């Protein structure tokens, strides 16, 4: 439970299925540290509500009529006025090809629609904190596979250049982040404190222009610092 003086996490729901939005609303509003501030039935409405309600986290369905979730995510994450808004994509494993596009567009991560309620609530808190939202476990493999596919959008050359701004330790930490490890796990592996790891992560994010840890993972693959596994 959050500290009593910490404001509730403001959540915007975007899904074209009213019944699903209703279920999400009941779940989110049942938590003492969360509140639903709006509901959207398509991407255009989600963007409009994001601008008017300034949510902390948007739960965004990828497939919606009209403006889909991918386009809405790109618009939200490219708007400087919405820099603090985090987007969690909701998808099914049948549309995995959209996952990396979502992360490239600026989403903080994604969940399958079949996730357990506690997973969804945890995802909201993780995204709000700017931590890695790379679950379920298959996500890291999906990111690696789709980033490695030919024909993907052109990879930003500037990111590879900006890696030169990282210290050796920051690069080392970035590799571990791309492996999906937590600060505690990285600290144990590198024999430093989790606070030191967090400092390195934050500095790497600032130097690379990453919104959160999920974006660091994408940059690590796009730049070639980490190579996708083929096994």
N-to-C SSE series?
A: EHEHEHEHEHHHHHHH
Q: What Rg is obtained from the alpha carbons, in whole angstroms?
A: 17 Å
The coarse silhouette is globular
- Ends: how far apart? 41 Å
Give the mean pLDDT.
81
Strand order of the largest sheet: 2-1-3-4-5
**What is the percentage of strand-forming residues?**
5-15%
Helical proportion? 40-55%
List low-confidence stretches.
135-139, 151-155
Provide a descriptive summary of the structure in words.
This protein has 231 residues and is α/β, with parallel strands linked by helices. Helix content is 50%, strand content 12%. The protein contains 11 helices and 5 strands, in the order βαβαβαβαβααααααα. It has a 5-stranded parallel β-sheet, with helices on both faces. α4 links the parallel β4 (86-91) and β5. α3 (69-77) packs parallel to α4, α8 (168-178) crosses α11 and α9 (183-190) packs across α10 (194-208). The radius of gyration is 17 Å and the shape is globular. Mean pLDDT is 81; it is low at 135-139 and 151-155.
Give a brief outline of the structure.
The protein is α/β, with parallel strands linked by helices and 231 residues long. The protein has eleven helices and five strands, in the order E-H-E-H-E-H-E-H-E-H-H-H-H-H-H-H.
Note the main attributes of this structure:
single chain, transcription regulation, alpha/beta, five-stranded parallel sheet, 5 strands, 11 helices, 50% helix, 231 residues
Reconstruct the topology from this structure.
Blueprint lengths: L8 E6 L3 H12 L4 E7 L2 H11 L3 E5 L7 H9 L8 E6 L5 H9 L3 E4 L4 H13 L8 H11 L8 H6 L5 H11 L4 H8 L3 H15 L4 H10 L9
Helix pairs in contact: 2-3, 3-4, 8-10, 8-11, 9-10, 10-11
